[in-house]
Specification:
Length: 100
């Protein structure tokens, strides 16, 4: 029986509000990371790598940014549905981000 991924991102869409309307910085991104697996996200400047990571960690500056769609499951829990205190409790203990 296959093990559930540690992190599962499905159809993630993150937008930023601008004077001309919403602009998608991340649009329909999906990937899984298994326990013990390492994932590298590469791309040119402005391609959405950092916004994807900030969206996952719940560190996106709101406003102007917001996750507009999709699902982020960490250990089976939808991070987008957690209260801020629950998400803070996960950061640093169960998940972290190394800034460049």
């Amino acid at each position: 029986m296959p093990q559930q991924p540690l992190l599962s991102v499905r159809n993630l869409r993150t937008v930023f509000a601008t004077a001309m309307g919403d602009v998608a910085a991340v649009d329909d991104v999906s990937f899984d990371v298994a326990r013990g697996e390492v994932l590298g996200i590469v791309g040119e400047s402005g391609s959405g790598k950092s916004v994807t990571a900030l969206s996952i960690m719940g560190l996106l500056p709101v406003p102007p940014g917001r996750v507009d769609g999709g699902e982020i499951l960490f250990e089976g829990r939808d991070l987008l549905k957690l209260r801020p205190a629950e998400l803070r409790a996960l950061r640093g203990s169960a998940m972290g981000m190394i800034f460049q």
